[in-house]
Structure to design on (206 residues):
C-alpha cells in the first residue's frame, strides 16, 4: 500500500540541479504490524522548522510536523511491507522494498535518493546511504517523521482490532507488556512469525 500527495507545486528544475528526496523507515524492530517507509522532496521556498530524527521528538511534535510536511513539501509518499512480506523476505529486504515503494510513489521523480542508514534499496533512482541521516539531512528527517507517524496511526487502528495486546502502548515493540500479552493470548494474524519470541511461542503451541 502506498499513500502520497495527489497535488504538488508546479515548477521548472534547472537541468543541472538535483531533485533530491529523503527516505527513511519505521518499524524494523516490532513483533507486530508492517514496516513503513516514507520519501520526501522538500520545497526550498517553504522551509519547515524543527525537522530532526523522529525518535527525538514527542508524539505531539511529530504529529504537528507531519501535517506541516504534507502541506509544504513538493512531494511525499508513504509505503509499507506487510507482516507476511516481512516473514517471507526477511526484515532487511522488506524494509528495502518499502523504501523503494515510497520512492516510486512520489509524484515527482527524484534524481537522487538519500537513504537513512548504511545501505540502499535496489531501484532505478540513484541513491546514497547516509548513516544517522535522519538527524543530519532535513529531507530524511521529514521522511522519518512521516514514516513514524503513519505507522503509529496504523498501530492505533490495529489496537482497536486486537485490544488484548495493548498495541497502543508499545506499538508492537517487544516490551515486557507485549511479551506477557503474547504469552497470554497467543499469536495473532498481525504478528511477525519469523521473529524469535513469536516463533518460540508457535513452537510451544500444540
Amino acid at each position: 500500500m502506498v499513500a502520497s500527495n495527489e497535488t504538488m507545486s508546479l515548477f521548472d528544475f534547472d537541468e543541472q540541479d538535483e531533485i533530491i528526496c529523503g527516505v527513511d523507515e519505521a518499524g524494523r524492530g516490532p513483533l507486530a504490524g508492517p514496516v513503513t517507509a516514507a520519501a520526501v522532496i522538500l520545497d526550498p521556498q517553504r522551509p519547515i522548522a524543527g525537522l530532526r530524527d523522529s525518535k527525538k521528538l514527542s508524539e505531539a511534535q511529530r504529529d504537528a510536523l507531519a501535517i506541516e510536511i504534507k502541506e509544504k513539501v513538493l512531494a511525499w509518499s508513504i509505503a509499507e511491507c506487510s507482516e507476511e512480506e516481512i516473514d517471507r523476505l526477511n526484515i532487511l529486504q522488506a524494509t528495502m522494498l518499502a523504501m523503494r515503494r515510497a520512492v516510486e510513489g512520489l509524484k515527482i521523480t527524484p534524481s537522487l535518493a538519500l537513504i537513512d542508514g548504511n545501505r540502499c534499496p535496489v531501484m532505478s533512482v540513484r541513491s546514497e546511504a547516509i548513516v544517522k541521516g535522519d538527524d543530519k539531512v532535513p529531507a530524511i528527517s521529514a521522511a522519518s517523521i512521516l514514516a513514524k507517524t503513519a505507522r503509529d496511526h496504523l498501530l492505533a487502528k490495529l489496537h482497536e482490532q486486537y485490544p488484548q495486546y495493548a498495541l497502543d502502548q508499545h506499538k508492537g515493540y517487544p516490551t515486557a507488556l507485549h511479551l506477557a500479552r503474547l504469552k497470554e493470548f497467543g499469536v495473532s494474524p498481525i504478528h511477525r512469525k519469523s521473529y524469535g519470541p513469536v516463533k518460540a511461542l508457535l513452537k510451544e503451541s500444540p
In short: The chain is about 40% helix and 15% strand. The radius of gyration is 18 Å. Residues 138-161 form the longest helix (24 residues). The longest strand covers residues 20-26.
